[in-house]
Amino acid sequence: MGGYPWRAFSVLCFVWLAILAGKIEAVPMRGQ
Fold it and tell me: Which 3 state secondary structure label does DSSP give 8?
């Protein structure tokens, strides 16, 4: 219990942002 798993947290955030970016990119492509 020396420190929090910041590495795992950052990885989860990165993956979450990547998924959101993919969804956001998929929306305008569908509109075209």
Answer: helix
**Is-above-0.85 flag for pTM?**
no
For the stretch 7-29, pLDDT in tens is 889 999 999 999 988 887 766 66
Q: Which residues contact 19 (CB under 8 A, 6 or more apart)?
A: none
CA–CA dist 17, 9 (Å, integer): 12
The DSSP letter of residue 4 is -
Q: Which residue has the tokens 């955030």?
A: 13
Helix (H) or strand (E) holding 30: helix 6-31
Determine whether 27 is exposed, middle or buried from the number of CB atoms within 10 Å of its CB (0-12, 13-18, 19+). exposed
